[in-house]
Each structure stands twice: as C-alpha cells, then as structure tokens.
Amino acid sequence: METSEQIYRHLRKLRDHLGGETGRYGEISDGEIVMMMSPVPQHGLTAKRIVRQLDAQLPRPLAAFENTDTDDEHLGKLRIPDIVVVPEEAMNTTNPLDPREITLAVEIVSRSNPDNDYVKKVADYAAMGIPHYLIVDPRSGTARHLWSVVAKEGRQVYDNQVSYVYGETIPIGDLHIDTSILPLYTDGVSR
C-alpha cells in the first residue's frame, strides 16, 4: 500500500504532466488534483493592485509575487496562492516554495469556486503554517484576514479573523491594503 507521500508524488507528476511546465491549472489537496480555470481579467487587476501596494511597503528582503506553487509533501498539499509575500531569495528555485517561508498568502475569490478559498484553503494554509491569509472577494466587495495559527483538536487552525468591506484599509502587521482601489466583478467596466 502506498504512503500518503507516495500518493502525493504520483499526483504531483500527473499534475505537472497535465499542466505543462507551469502546472498552473492544478493544485493538490485531500488526495485530489483540483483543476483551475483561467481567471478573468478583473482577477488579475485586483492581484496587480494588491502586489503594487505590498511591494511599496515591504522591507527588503521581502517581496510580493503572483501565482507561485507552494507545497508540503508530508501533508500532501500543493497550492498556488494568487499572491505570496516571501523573502525574494526564496523565489530563486525551480521547486515549489516552502510554505514556512511565506508570511502572507492572498487569494482572490473566483466566481466559479468560492468554497475553495473560504473553506479548503483556510484549512490548508493553516495546516501549512502560513501565518497570515487574506481572502479578497470581488463578487461581494468584501475581504477576510485570518491569522495566528494554533493547534486545536490535533490540527492547525487560524485563531483570529476580521472581515472588511471594500473602501476600508486592511491592516496586516505593519502593512496596509487599501481596498477602495480594487474592482468588483462586473459584466462591464470595473471601477
């Protein structure tokens, strides 16, 4: 019988084969490959506006990067956060990021699979030990910051969370994200 690490490595090879060199459209969680659709342009605009804000505030050697694999083979999880904050040198690899190097993961909720960001990734990012997780939801113009990973009932969970609405500034430690410049998902022009 295969171990969970062996199953994960098998799924990782299959994901890499399906996704080509980047593997961008597949994550691994709970023993499954989670296929992802390409995001809409407003999703990319939201990510760019957040990255610009973060990069203007982050002390070196930290920087914000988009769409980067992070995995924990022991947990059998591979995720691709929309944005990560890590030491710049951590990006100098062809391997997925070590989640213990990530200080903040940001997910921008998609229309097609919101539970992935609100439920599954909350559990996965806490299990991976990522200290801050920000969910930005252009569908409703809201955001949720989760932080302080603690052990409860044999698993890692976020102990704190605060919700925000677009127009508010989100404090994350010494960082601040202005949500008033983030677009809502629309069928036409974004604000």
TrEMBL record:
Q: What sequence ranges are listed for the domain Putative restriction endonuclease?
A: 27-145
Q: Which InterPro entries match?
A: Nuclease_put_TT1808, Restrct_endonuc-II-like, Uma2
Question: One Pfam match, by short name?
Answer: Uma2
This chain's protein is named Putative restriction endonuclease domain-containing protein
Can you name the source organism? Streptomyces noursei (Streptomyces albulus)
